[in-house]
Amino acid sequence: MTSPLPFSTVPTSAQQQPTPFELHIEDTKLQDFKTLLRLSPVAKKTYENVQDEGSHGKFGVSRKWIVDAQSEWTKGFDWRKEEARINSLPNFKTTITDDDSSKYDIHFVALFSSKADAIPIAFFHGWPGSFLEFLPLMEMLRKRYTPETLPYHIIAPSLPGYALSSDPPLHKDWKTADTSRLMHKLMLALGFGASGYLVQGGDIGSFVSRNIAATYAECKGMHLNMMFTHDIQSKASPDDDISAAEQKGMQRMQEFMDVGSAYAREHGTKPSTIGLVLASSPIAQLAWIGEKFLAWSDPSTTPSLNTILADITLYWLTDCYPTSIYTYREPQKTMYVDKAVGYSWFPYELAPVPRAWAEKTGNLVFFRAHEQGGHFAALERPEVLWGDVEAWAKIAWNE
């Protein structure tokens, strides 16, 4: 079975042929969602939730933003348009067999090149993101190239537990290394074992990328737009050359640790409770996830409300929130990467790690600091992020 879409021809070197996939949420499920959304109450006004009514502030997301977003979600947002957009790119599912013979269905979006020397690059999303983060970048490349001229294979999977991929198992704990292993196996299944491949990630995708790059010989390098790990501050030294912009970024990082990371504490300590809470109401997910898009983005490049609603709707319709937070129970320690490392620094990243610290975590061959952009770089500044990735990839592939 093949897809009629351009860029959908899987390389002949593939070890197994993925199945073309088209997303379609059943009408009954979509109608149930709309009914729940319409009936979901919004908390009454409080001193805290009427502060900074434009979006969010000291006490979190504002009530007015929630009310306005609920209205748009109910009356203006069209999920079928989002589905059409997703399905306009080649989507696939394939079954990956783990080391213990367990099988997982892995979803991914891809742009496959017909060039024999195309460079494979896997893009890994984080929380509260999804593969949707990379659609603008892929749409840009689709306009810029044909399958015959595209110099890259672009693969953007749904990580296990997210959206359209299988959930982690119920009978054992699941860690970043497990997700990384499945993603590595995916790249091998697509035929990139002999040539090797590159990885890119932000947020949890940065942990997956680092784990893969540090563990598997077939991975030839990693590019990150988030360099944060739990022990990253141990890399600091009085002799570090820190720019004024980086000093401001370090203040943002400290602020995040002080007043912005309570959600992560809840994810890491009581995932069962918060999973059950947020699965009970679309408005609960709107507040919990919407706050992150607002607080972690550059105010000048914040994703549109429609983009935020699309991400949260995907979470709701695939019931993936409770299975997407497993990595928070595991402190992410820095694994040194001796391969080609690239790092794009954005000022509104939730923890903009200085270059001097990043250089101590791997073989940094590419660094570029930007004056705009935040945590969701692929959504906020897709052309800029891609320019960095492409410049780094040309170095990394020839290392």
Automatic annotation (TrEMBL):
Residues 19-134 form the Epoxide hydrolase N-terminal domain. The active site is at D203 (nucleophile), Y328 (proton donor), H375 (proton acceptor). Transmembrane segments: none annotated. One of its GO terms (molecular function) is epoxide hydrolase activity. Keywords: Hydrolase. Pfam families: EHN. One of its GO terms (biological process) is epoxide metabolic process. It comes from the Eukaryota. The keyword Signal does not apply. Belongs to the peptidase S33 family. This is Alpha/beta-hydrolase. It comes from Decorospora gaudefroyi. The lineage of its organism: Eukaryota, Fungi, Dikarya, Ascomycota, Pezizomycotina.
